[in-house]
Structure formats: C-alpha cells, structure tokens
Automatic annotation (TrEMBL):
The keyword Plastid does not apply. This is Citrate transporter. Signal peptide: none annotated. Residues 16-376 form the Citrate transporter-like domain. Pfam families: CitMHS. GO terms for molecular function: citrate transmembrane transporter activity. It is a multi-pass membrane protein. It is found in: Membrane.
C-alpha cells in the first residue's frame, strides 16, 4: 500500500474518531483534518483550489437541500402532515414497538423513488413530532430511515446500481433477478431491528395513552400566529407535493431547480402576505444554514481527497489487497471489501475505479459479472454513513441528533444489513466462497 493510500485511510479514520469522541465538531473536522494532511504533504498552495473545486461539486446538492428544507418546513408549519400523523397514531395506539416498525415500513415506501434526501425529509418531518412526544430514543428515527434507504438506494433507478449496470454490462433483469431476494430479506431484517428497538422502548416507556393527546408538529405551542389552512389550500399542497415527486422520478429538471420552484410556489400558496413569508423563512433559516455549512465542509473534504489523487491511491490499494492465491474467492472477498470501499471512497471512485479491475480479475476465475455486481452493491448497507455522503448531514439535521453519536449508534446495525444480504446471496448461490 502506498504512503498516500495509507494516509487517506488513516485520515478518514481520524475524522470519525474526532467526531465520535466529540473532540471536534463535524464542520471543523471535515475542513481541518484534510487541510492539515495537505500541509503535511506540502500541498498548501494547491489545497485552496482543491477545496473550491470540491465545494463546486456540492453546490447543486446544497441548494437542493436548502430549498427542500424550506419547502417541507412550510408544509409542517401549516399542518400538512398532521392527518398522516393522526392515522399513524391510531395505528400504533401508543405502542413504541408498533411505531418503530411503522417508521421502518413508511421509510421503505417513501424510499421507492431511490432518493435518500426526499425520504428523510418526508419521513422525518412527518414522524419526528410523534417520536419526540412519545419520548422514543432520538437515534431510532434517523437510524431506521437511513437503513431502509441504504437498501432501496440499490433499486435500478438508484445511483449505485446505475454505475454497476454500466461497468458490469449486465441487464436490469440479470442483476436484480439475482439481487432481489437479498434486498427483500434486508428490508425484513430492518423491520425486525425496528421491532427489537421498539420492544426495548416499550419496556422503558410502557404503552402511552394517546386519547386526547395532540401529536401535531406544534403540539403545546401557541398557534395563534400560525395559519390554519383551508381544505382547498391543503389540496393544493398535496397536488404540489405529488407533482414534485413525479418530476423527481422523471428527472424533468435538476433537483435543485425543482425544489427552488416548489418552495417559491409553497410560500405563495400558504402565505399570501409578505410578512408571513418573511416569518417562516426566518424560522427555517437556521436549519438551512446548518445543512449548507455541513455540505460545503464535506465538499472541502472530498475536494482535497480528489485533488491530491488520494482517492485513486486508496482504490488501487484495495485491489492490490487481494493475493492471487485467493483469486477464486474474489466474489466473496470483494463483497467484504465493498463495505469499507464504499465507506472510505465515493461511489464513483469505487464503482468506476475498483470494480472494473475486479471484473478483469474475475474473468480468470470464471466468476460472472452478475456475481461481481452483487458483491459491489453489498457494501451499500454502510455507504450512507460515510462522511462523503451529503444527505446524511440532512438526516441528522432534521432529527436534531449529534453526527458522531449517530455514527456510533447506527454503524453496527448498518453493517448487519450488508452481512444479511451477503448471506442470502450465498444461500441462493449467486456468490460462492
């Protein structure tokens, strides 16, 4: 392993240790850790350009997250999600176990569009007040959302799968005909984890008497200054939201532009008066600012890793880590390597840099491209916890949990998803030891 690759892996590990032990805030760690490394290698002058290049990459994502938070913040303020929350309250009947399982199911359904940010915003904005009022552990809601998205993100229209289909030159029916059972069992596994957490919460909290309890987003607050929208306006909100989802699936226009337009329309529909528009924007502004700062900091982190070619060196090191004597077990081994691979590297770096080399080696041992494609996607169970994934910062922002604490709470459950999916793939004979 080269010095640059070694430093790259150590750098990401140091970042995680610093935020988990609360020695540094994620923003300062994302910026200063790679910058110190750059200075150590004598890249001081170039590092500024790399940081700017990395920030430019995340600008569309930052804009999308900012205006998406504004859009869903408006819907929360006018009580758009209250009917959904009331239905869920009737279903769970104050039982934490039912709420946790219901959260997992709702997250999986919303995640059908393959977009993590949208799933987080819809699921968390709808269920956060309910989880908070029932005093469920704050980590459970974001953990269940992220775990379900990590599986649903593998759907054919998800980003990782698109890359794998291109590199392996396999068809959707070939890859997902084989991967389907692993995904289904993975989804069921998350629901079982949700039930286990729910039983723990039921033991801790008991079953709550929900009669007469207000679970709306503004329960306990004075709503005299908040608009109570007519059914007509709420139907407009529903139409706007459904239209947004359809456009999201069809990718008619870029996501950032889509949410900018949607947020502007939501402001006009729900707040005809300019003073009310100013009020809601000032209330939501802190959440928007926190997420934008985090994504820009993540852009600086990625920018230095890419500009210094550190990611390329790390990718090559992963390929060289497999001795030739173990080549016949390449499918099984690459399944495990995809876990740290998609965590330490970006999806592009792993799927375009590492996977093609694995594929060439697999031909020598008669391992099929489908098997290698499945192996490459196994690591997605942990990928979303990577500090290089911007949507995770949105998730912790929406649920108001600490990023480092969230990593510690969710890492093992997410790792279990990859292991469960690998076991199922081996049972069905798609990956052999």
């Amino acid at each position: 392993m080269t010095l640059l690759a070694t430093v790259g892996f150590i750098m990401v590990a140091v970042f995680m240790i610093l935020i988990m032990t609360k020695r540094l805030h994620p923003v300062t760690a994302l910026i200063l850790v790679p910058f110190v490394v750059a200075l150590g290698f004598g890249w001081g002058p170039q590092s500024g350009k790399w940081i700017v290049a990395g920030i430019k990459q995340v600008v569309p994502t930052s804009v999308m997250l900012c205006f998406a938070i504004l859009y869903f913040g408006i819907l929360i303020d006018v009580g758009f999600f209250d009917p959904l929350v009331n239905r869920i309250v009737k279903f769970v009947k104050g039982d934490p176990a039912k709420l946790c399982v219901g959260t997992a199911i709702l997250a999986a359904i919303v995640a059908l569009d393959g977009d993590g940010a949208t799933t987080y915003m819809v699921t968390c904005t709808a269920l956060y007040p309910l989880h908070k009022r029932m005093q469920i552990k704050p980590m459970i809601l974001p953990a269940l959302c992220l775990m379900q998205v990590s599986i649903m993100n593998i759907l054919p229209w998800g980003g990782p799968s698109g890359r794998v289909l291109i590199i392996t030159e396999t068809s959707v029916s070939q890859l997902f005909g084989a991967l389907g059972p692993s995904m289904v069992v993975g989804l069921v596994w998350v629901c079982l984890v949700a039930y286990y957490w729910g039983l723990q919460e039921r033991k801790r909290l008991g079953i709550m008497n929900v009669e007469g309890v207000d679970f709306s987003a503004h329960a306990g607050e004075d709503r005299k200054d908040r608009p109570v929208q007519s059914q007509y306006v709420q139907w407009l909100n529903l139409g706007l939201t459904l239209g947004l989802i359809v456009m999201l699936l069809k990718e008619v226009i870029p996501l950032s532009a889509m949410f900018m337009i949607a947020a502007a329309l939501a402001l006009i529909i729900n707040y005809p008066k300019v003073k009310d528009q100013s009020r809601i924007m000032s209330e939501i502004a802190p959440d928007c600012l926190n997420i934008v700062i985090l994504t820009f900091a993540a852009g600086a982190f990625v920018g230095i890793m890419q500009g210094s070619k550190m990611i390329d060196s790390m990718a090559k090191a992963m390929v060289l880590a497999i001795p030739e004597s173990l080549g016949s077990h390449l499918g099984f081994i690459s399944s495990f390597l995809s876990i740290p691979g998609t965590y330490f590297l970006t999806n592009d770096a792993y799927y375009y840099g590492v996977l093609p080399i694995f594929l060439q080696a697999a031909k020598v041992y008669s391992i099929t491209p489908v098997a290698m494609g499945i192996a490459a996607l196994i690591g997605q169970g942990v990928h979303l916890l990577s500090p290089l994934v911007a949507s995770t910062y949105l998730l912790v922002g929406l649920t108001k949990v600490d990023y480092g604490d969230f990593q510690k709470f969710t890492l093992i459950p997410c790792l279990s998803i990859s292991i469960v999916m690998l076991i199922v793939a081996m049972i069905f004979g798609h990956i052999t030891f």
